[in-house]
Amino acid sequence: MWLPVTGLILGIILGFLFSVEIPLGVVKYTAIAILAAVDTILGGLRAQLEERFDLSIFLTGFFANTLFAALLTAIGDLLGVDIYLGAVIAFSIRIFSNVGFIRRDLLERYWQGLRATVTSKQ
Amino acid sequence: MHLVEHAPRSWRVTRLQAALAVVLAVAGFLAVTQIRNELLIRQQLRLPSQRLEELGFMLREMERNRGAMEAQIEQIRGQLHAYEQGAAQGRVQLEALGRQLEVFRAQAGHIPMAGPGVIVGLDDSPFPLRPGDDPNTVILHYTDLQGVLNELWASGAEAVAVNGERMITTTGLNCVGTTILCNAKRIAPPYRIVAIGDTDQMARYLARADGVVAGLRAFGFPVKVTRAGRLTVPAYRGSYRFTHAAPAAPER
Which of A14, B79, B103, B143 has an alpha carbon 20 to 30 Å from A91's alpha carbon atom? Predict the structure, then answer.
């Protein structure tokens, strides 16, 4: 568990060390991409809790979702439709539902563990 | 056996964790960069980036408007310039007209005049009437006054007043009892004619042996002609009224 946490911290530190200036026009795309990334990470966490985590699905999901979200936003800009709003809503809903599932999975695990200790005591 | 089975599993877990670490590192890097940029934008522009596009559109619109308005300003400035030129010309014309008006007013007797001239004092005859005498022989008539005035005009008087009444183009003298009507006002003896003009010429003309003054003196009327270096003639105080006459078109 320490390696992913280290990776996250490393990424944050890198972000603080290298100030990459995102052009004004691209800020929207990166924002939506980050939303997609957060969604994928939460999805991966949920899958791991439900013990159906697949690395290839996770990795492709992460990069594909991120890129596709940015692409969708760009297409929306080209069409003059705020498609990125739709993406924001979709990702937000997915993030909320994933968080909900993760909470439920964690609670289930907690109850199971409790029951296991109770039965072992009996 | 245990080791053989265990080693790939731990390696697999490590690989999984490494992948997760990479993904999280990318995500963290992206998030931090994004947050920093957003904060920078807010700090510099004092508004969230979502509104930038809208504002950009508004800016473009405003810039277009500004261009149009600048063109308008240029046009209005040109107009103003033209107007100013016109006004300057108008001012010059107005000044010329004002000067002309002043001349006309002076000629019409609407402004007081000053200058050298002569004063002619006239009065009824001091001789007492004897019974049977015609009173007309001792009373100064308007025709006598008119005669003196005519001689003054003839000898170059430019502005004349009788007892403070300015002689103008429409001034006529009329007899009303023992007084004389002048500019619709009664004037009574003694009469004091003030005439501005060539002093010598007027005085000499009045002093002719066959002049009106000499004739009046022969009948015993006291006539006094005095020269003055500086006299003032008042302005005509009445008004002109044209009820029947109208300016005619100039003849070609």
Answer: A14
